[in-house]
Amino acid sequence: QSQLVESGGASVHPGGSLRLSCAASGFTLENYYIAWFRQAPGMERRGIACISRSGGSTNYADSVKGRFTISRDNAKNTVYLQMHALKADDTAVYYCAAKPTTIQDSCAIQRPRDEYDYFGQGTQVTVSS
User: Fold this and answer.
1) Above 90 in pLDDT, residue 39?
2) Sheet with strand 3-7: strands edge to edge
3) Rounded to an integer, what distance in angstroms lies between the CA atom of residue 58 and that of residue 37?
4) Reduced to 3 states, what is the DSSP secondary structure of residue 43?
5) Bridge-partner residues for 119, per DSSP?
6) How far is CA 113 from CA 44, 84, 86, 99, 119, in A?
């Protein structure tokens, strides 16, 4: 069964750090760019970061720029989201998604959901004191 599985979500205090993982099984991530989305209670799911197939291009939403870093390890078939200086507003369910592309060095954080072949089930991040 081909799927994406997120992990690493937890409850942390403001200012803390977490690293989320997005592992693919049943298919290779090499042919996809990967985006991270998050959805807070009562809010729309929004893209916050993406990384190109090659890993050479990344994009971030303004809300996370400078605090979050997306990376990928194609050998491990895994993408990561390193999060620092977490704030209460970062509380959400975090999802990763894989979008097929022939372009090596481009990605976008706001594409329609139906353009993605795979979405994970999400991992909860809670930031509170």
Assistant:
1) yes
2) 3-7, 18-25, 78-83, 68-73
3) 14
4) coil
5) 97
6) 12, 27, 26, 9, 9
